[in-house]
Amino acid sequence: MTNKMQTAQVEEFGQPLVFNELDIPTPGPGQILVKTEACGVCHTDLHARNGDWPLKPALPFTPGHEGIGIVTELGAGVTAVKKGDRVGVPWLYSACGHCEFCLAAQETVCADAEFGGYTRNGGFAEYIIANPNYVAHIPKGLSALDAAPLICAGITTYKGLKETQAKPGQWVVISGIGGLGHLGVQYAKAMGLHVCAVDIDDAKLKHATLLGADAVVNAKHEDAAAAVINATNGGAHGVLITAPSLPAFEQGVAMTRKHGTCVLVGIPPGKFPTPLFDVVANCITIRGSFVGTRSDMAEALAFAADGKVKADIELQPLSAINEVFDRLANGEVPSRVVIDFTATSI
Q: Running DSSP on this structure, what letter comes out for residue 107?
């Protein structure tokens, strides 16, 4: 085996990724080495490349937080996984394990959390160093290519739906039927919820209907809030906003039923335009939801292993990552792109 690997790295914010050949890393104590089979591409990777957020990664770094692969080496003291296991290296790369949030199984908001493809090198590489205590355990029968989008887009929408606290038989709105939203529709139906899909693209709304949405609303052609209130007989018990759009956030609150919950997972630039009178008078809860815990991950993957959720994926080689980023930036990726490391050409 060669001791080199191909990577795509950010060397300068806002510039195309640079392809580098680096030494395959050696896992230290408490670490594992994963040979990458697939890595999904997320809009967060684009934010990372551009340095959009206040906490910026140290340059250079390797993006990618939907990496799936086979464990090939174990560092000293590792017992949580074994060689040959298929695992995912997700956004939540690690956490401290002992703060009040970790002890309450809320590790995604740990102050000392590390993030894959951001503060730690991620999956746009042929090998990944990972923390065995925080990897996703991929169920048997679920391929690496199918699993990749689920360890970010899947868990994010699934956790967001849980945070709405909507009960089976109640209505939820999925706002934005793209990479996250098309999975959200499937998770919501699998959870026994009625789904109203909202988007500005008729093709995406048609897709939502094929995935089981009970009602669809085109926010470009009609008053979205009024249409949702009519379709759901009073507003949705839960609203999940995946679209990185401030108008979608404002509409989301207006679509929420009294005593309902509007959950935010998209992160558009700017400040959230909150209609305070409506929130107070209608006793609406607005809640942020940030990916999901290890327990949420196991549940999200179990739905897919049972055949109830499947991401729509487009396969690309690592060499196409800059073109994929351009398409993401222009809204030209309908669902999820997965980098296929099993193909003969990287």
A: G
